């Protein structure tokens, strides 16, 4: 690979023994796709044509389909630039400036051997980057070629000749990507095989993300820590604290296991930069001193003993809450799995002042402050300060942070493209009449979508757009709207369709709304403002 060296008349020599800094080469943008020296005049003039550039550009909807290989290739280019600007030039600068000052022949040979080893390592890294770039470029070319074979999904006006088969590859691609991102890996695999989308979907990436996400939900850190360490530089560039949150959770697990020595060793590895970025990491130092592990099983046994002594207390009006707490076990687990609320848990939380979500497993050891360790019901301000840090709901936060980090690194949107398109489409077609007057041709009127459509906001339209329920065409000047005596609005062409389909000899047509036979001349023109 050739390097762009500075010109001799730049006023600075390539090898300068008076300076100790490494040799720097002039930097240029790696994503500059237009090179005037290699383009002809015809290519330059064509690039200036806005119509030609608009045809060559990738649509805004299609960008999400090529985002992953593009972002991975861009990261490889940045890694290549770092190797050339830092590692390689440091070695060459040392060989040209420092090596000549060494007097011992043996030391020179040792330094040369070390430099050769580092150059070989750099060569291996460059070859790996080169192979990765070739793979990503071929993926981008394959996807762009597949996109060019079909028209874009963005249609500025209603097209009566719209056919799903004209956009089948693109729509299937969007659906497969939605299934893979939402964790339906098996369904995505079968669907991808049926639609021949194996070269267009990043299956390995989504499989890895699904495995890490599921392990975080299962309260496991191994895969998440391995992924975060491998992407540490990229996470730092995107200002993500996911790796810091994982390391904080490691310390929390050590504290919950009672391993103070292991927690202390992990805390010593926290750097100043991490303490500045992550607020929870600063809480751990005081948590190590103020929090204490309490075994709830011993506390329960004491309560059970006291309740056995006063088992007749219920008849005398005494509190029977310890008996309810003692009977919690398998039935409560079944309630959680089946989604049945636990009434006992609600009563206990109201009387003890604790959070119901933190009472999932009473027998598990909990972390409380040293002032509340001997009193199970007591919760002070210190306990509330560290409750979110020690709560099991923190695992859900880690899973969400992982999804945000993946979306930021690989250029993905926070929500799958299919969800965004459906949400936008339903907002556009939803109206106030969708619930009162259902239409079979309106997607917002479908009963399967009713629960989701109710939460979708109704957009304010400055210009009314009417679609004929008979023909599905837009009503306008060339196809004026007509209203029946029963209040049903149809187009002029729709009325002709009703007349042709009518079997009545007197010229009566069936009103689509009231299902009554009315004369066609009673349909009146409708003027909309």
Q: Can you summarize this structure?
A:
The chain is mostly helical. 53% of the residues lie in helices and 5% in strands.
List keywords for this structure.
single chain, 529 residues, mainly alpha, Herpes Virus-1, two-stranded antiparallel sheet, 23 helices, disordered N terminus
Describe the structure.
The two termini are 67 Å apart. Strand 3 and strand 4 (474-475) form a beta hairpin. The longest helix is centred in the N-terminal third of the chain and has 44 residues, at 105-148. With 529 residues, this protein is mainly alpha-helical. Helix 11 packs antiparallel against helix 13 (279-290). The chain has a domain at 466-525: Herpes Virus-1. It is 53% helix and 5% strand. The radius of gyration is 34 Å and the shape is elongated. It has helices spanning 41-48, 50-56, 67-98, 105-148, 168-181, 185-195, 203-217, 222-230, 232-237, 242-256, 260-268, 272-277, 279-290, 296-309, 321-326, 330-338, 343-352, 381-385, 387-390, 394-409, 417-429, 450-455, 492-501; strands at residues 291-294, 366-369, 466-467, 474-475, 481-483, 489-491, 508-510, 517-519, 524-525. The chain contains 23 helices and nine strands.
